[in-house]
What we know:
By secondary structure, the protein is an alpha+beta fold. The strands form three sheets. Strands 11, 12, 13, 14, 15, 16, 17, 18 and 19 form a nine-stranded antiparallel β-sheet that branches. The chain has a six-stranded mixed β-sheet with strand order 4-3-2-1-5-6, sandwiched between helices. The chain folds into three domains: 2-100, no CATH class; 109-125 and 204-346, ATP-grasp fold, B domain (D-amino Acid Aminotransferase, Chain A, domain 1, 2-Layer Sandwich), CATH 3.30.470; 130-202, Dna Ligase, domain 1, CATH 3.30.1490.20. It contains nine helices and 19 strands.
Amino acid sequence: MRRLAIVYGTDGDYIKEVLSFFQLRELRRGGDRKFIAVPWGGGPSDRKVWSVNDRFEIEEETPDRFPAFREAVILNLPATAERFLHGKIARFLQKRRVILFNPYPASLRAGDKYGTISRLAAKGIPVPEAVLLRKSDASRITARLRAFLSRHKAAGFYIQPNEGTEGRETYFYPASDFRQSPGYAAETVSGILRDREVIVKKARGNVFYFNGGEPERGHRPVTFRIFLWQPGDEAEADLGFAEVGASEIDPVSSPERGGRIIPPAEALGNLFYREAGARRRLVMTGEELRSLPASAARALAALNSGLRHKLRIAGVDLLLEVADGKVQPIVLEINPRPSGLDKLAEFGPTHGNS
């Protein structure tokens, strides 16, 4: 039996849930992997290794030395040092000839938001229009933002660091607000540019979540996360969740910014879109439902193109747009260390109105 280690940095209670999830999924697919959880850092007394026993209980042991395993995935690193620690752990495991499901070069590629969007666009995958701002743009931020709005006829734009995960430091500016007071957006960009590059993305998506039990929250932004896991030749993309904004006036759906995670089925049953100034309920066909995991798998394949060691775990974030009566997924980004694995659920049926 092969041992696959979840090497993690923080939040042991969450990792226990993830460990159980992976072991149960492996059992259901008839695989032969034994999953363990191994913390990174600390002394020998902190080196507690967890596994799942035959009664599906978490067992703990404290080995004298770093445990042996053939495969690994790196998850849940401190936000302030994700990239640095990922590289450090990857180099350590490489010396031990461990196969990584999220190898460092592939994770670096995915973590470059602008590079990923450009790569996917070149493969014909729908993505938001974007521009990258560097320190050399510091003296002309407002001009660059104005030109971006004009060129893409954007109703608004999002500002983010070009690296980082899970919606941290994401800011939205409607075009009307920017034209009236451009200094606020320019100041946001300037602050991030002190130590990181900035990606500016056109606001996309015209499909929203509305829960009749919470009418005061209005039609909220919704983002779908598809979890991709490739234990063999083909990537599995049948699980995920949805993130919904706190309210209609909160344009960022990430839980890091006040949003909430809900099961995909709940989100898919409460979707509305704008058409001719009115809100209409969206009922997706079976083909449209299947297009979400299919789009995520295409995005991962495009990201991995040309890489020797490919990314085999990812969280792909999507928006939905309705145009000419058809639903089209828009890929936002690919997360090489996806969080929320304890919230995954079946990603909707593959049936529907044909």
